[in-house]
Amino acid sequence: MRIAGIGYARGLYIVMKRDLDRFWKYKWWLAGLITMNLTDLFIFALIFNNIINRAYISNYLLFLAPGITAIATFASAFSIGREVGVEVRRGYTQYLLSLPLTRMQLSMGRILGGAVRGLIYQIPFILLLIILFGKLPVLAEAGVMVITSIMLTISMSSLSIVISTAVRSFDLQATMRSFTYFLLFFFSNVFYPDALISRYFPHALYIMISNNPVSIATSIYRGIFTPATVMEDPLILLLKLAAWCIIFLMLGSVFYLRNLTQ
Amino acid sequence: MIIWDVRKVARYKVFLIMRFAWFAVQVSVFAILISYLVTIRPSTGSGITYYEYYLFGAYTALLFSISMFRGYEIAEEFEEGIIEYHLSLPVRRRILAIGRTIGGGIASFIYTLPMMLLILIMLRIWNPLLIAIAMLSALAFSIGIVGLAINIVFGLKSGDRTDILFGVIDALLVRLSTIFYPLPFLSAIPPYFYTAMFNPLSSLADFLRALFLFEDLKPFLYLSQEQMISYIAGLAIGLSVLAMLFIERKAEGGGWR
Q1: How many domains are there within chain A?
Q2: B242 Cβ partners below 8 Å, 6+ apart?
Q3: CB of B113 within 8 A of CB of B14?
Q4: Is the CB of B163 less than 8 angstroms away from the CB of A57?
Q5: In the predicted model, what is the mean pLDDT of residues B160-165?
Q6: Burial degree of B167 (CB within 10 A; 0-12, 13-18, 19+)
Q7: Which of A37-41, A43-47, A248-252 has the largest mean confidence?
Q8: A47 and B CB contact within 8 Å
Q9: CA A131 – CA A69 distance, rounded (Å)
Q10: How far is the C-alpha of A65 from the C-alpha of A190, rounded, in Å?
Q11: Tens of pLDDT along B170-202?
């Protein structure tokens, strides 16, 4: 039983390792991605910081930084979906099926591979948060951050696989990916505080925006660095993110397996 | 070739719905909330709100994104062998290139026309001459960007690389422009200020703003309207000619990765 477990874990590791190795091929893409996130943080935030309403936010750079850290996981974790999409279109899945791995190992390996990409990409942004706030999280806070990041990247990676396997057309995949990014980014609390959303928008819309997985992760990060800005209990936030993670993980594996067997 | 591209407009219902939803989120969530958060009036003496300022920025970003999307479509055609079919047709290659560029530009413009009309209605703009100028400038911009997308796809001949490069270009050009913030606010960062000033997205967004909100927008303008429209027209002609030369002299079937 134990040997079977080790064998299973090894299969997962091989799939993940393959995806991680391929990640480093995209140096220019990574450079562009980092520039984009840093531009959002240092240009968007600094410019807006001069014209912001101080009644809502005292320092827009510090307000935006946790949100950028959360959304940074999107594009890197989503790169796995782009690759799965290429494999779907080119019929590469036949080769994957011929490997001495179970379908579940393949499916979970791909999702976790995308999650590891997102986590690696996110590390510098978390370090930047620590520098910007000048605060080193205590052990419990660091644990919450790690759990949050793992759940968020698994969610993003699974979501990307759902999108890439739901449609086969290259242009439609790109459109859906871009739309999902904008929905998660702009329909969240990354740019604006919850108080502002709840004041000007209907309650139902506020509930939708504040329960977007990127909003939840952003609130958790904000809660660690600026506890006064977040009203919701961190445990409730973690449970909500766990629910998203499980839903996306299940959908991701179902869609990937469906794609493998078609 | 122009009709071939334009006819495809009706086929992309999901694409259209998603783009419209993207625009709706931009205008009804992001723009509203940010306009409550920031004010651009006191520091510049401008009479417009951030919401009004951002509307044409959101439109420009959408038009740019949809025009670049033609590149994805051409990449898809490469994967399906349709490009080889086109190259084998008894049509001069320069006609093929110009047809695709203009057809793609018109199709992209048609996709965004409802959003432009929505903005004009929201701002209560009814002047037919100004609306016609705005539409022509948007069309010219779209043709230029489609020319750029064609050059990239035919040059790279790889779906993977096209996807990555388009993502980077889309993300960076939108951010390094005046889509989100007026040019004077960027003057503290000179490299960014000049990049934004000469970014074609800034030219179209600021030209549309100047066309309809000129008096209120004066403090934000560094280039004249004539300079901006010349830049947009130059971009359309230059990139179309480049696409034409590229397809005429370099393009061959096969070799797609």
Answers
A1: 1
A2: B147, B151
A3: no
A4: no
A5: 80
A6: buried
A7: A248-252
A8: yes
A9: 13
A10: 9
A11: 878 888 899 988 888 888 888 889 999 999 999
Is B22 in contact with A186 (CB distance < 8 Å)?
no
Q: Is the pTM of this model over 0.90?
A: no
As a residue count, chain B comes to: 257
Give residue A219's pLDDT band: very low, low, confident or very high (50, 70, 90).
Answer: very high
The nearest alpha carbon in chain A to B19 belongs to A179
**Chain A neighbours among B 17-76 (CB < 8 Å)?**
18-19, 21-22, 25-26, 29-30, 32-34, 36-40, 43, 65, 69, 72-73, 75-76
Interchain CB distance below 8 Å, A32 and B168:
yes
Task: Report yes or no: A233 and A216 within 8 Å, Cβ to Cβ.
Answer: no
Establish if A52 touches chain B: CB-CB under 8 angstroms.
yes
Provide the shortest C-alpha distance from residue B224 to chain A (in Å): 24
Query: Do A36 and B43 make contact, defined as CB atoms within 8 angstroms?
Result: no
Rama region for A102: left / alpha / beta (φ>0; ψ in -120 to 50; rest): beta
| Residue linked to tokens 């420009």 | B60
At B47 the three-state DSSP class reads coil
Which stretches within B157-224 are classed as H helix? Answer: 159-175, 190-197, 200-217
Residue numbers of the domain that contains A245: 2-261
Q: Which one, of B171, B150, B56, lies nearest residue B103 by Cα?
A: B150
> Dihedral of the CA atoms B179, B181, B187, B189 (nearest 10)?
-80
Q: In sequence order, which residues have a C-beta less than 8 Å from that of residue A163 and are 6 or more positions away?
A: A81, A173, A176, A177, A180
Q: Are A256 and A106 in contact (CB under 8 A)?
A: yes
